[in-house]
Design a protein that fits this description.
Pfam families: YhdB
Protein name: YhdB-like protein
Order of helices and strands: HHHH
Oligomer: single chain
Distance between the termini: 24 Å
Structural class: mainly alpha
InterPro entries: YhdB-like
Shape: globular
Length: 83
């Protein structure tokens, strides 16, 4: 998995470009990223309680952070087994 989807998700969220975030949700191959985006956009559009929207946004951002951390560690783990 390339980091481009995660970078785009951060950028679109930061810029409040919900249409682009929706398109990314459909096109990404990362099912969990897609689900987190879906949950956030649904809460943003339909939830009246702002704390729920904030919770979904934090969950999306935490997942992106986690996925980027895993991606950064991946080459190191595969190098150990090359020998």
């Amino acid at each position: 998995m390339h980091t481009a989807d995660y970078d785009k998700a951060l950028y679109y969220t930061y810029r409040s470009e919900w249409d682009h975030l929706l398109i990314l949700m459909v096109r990404t191959k990362d099912d969990l990223l897609s689900k987190k985006i879906e949950q956030f956009l649904h809460a943003y559009n339909f939830e009246k309680d702002y704390t729920v929207v904030q919770k979904r946004l934090n969950a999306l951002l935490r997942y992106i952070d986690h996925a980027l951390d895993v991606y950064e560690q991946e080459p190191t783990m595969t190098m150990q087994y090359d020998y």
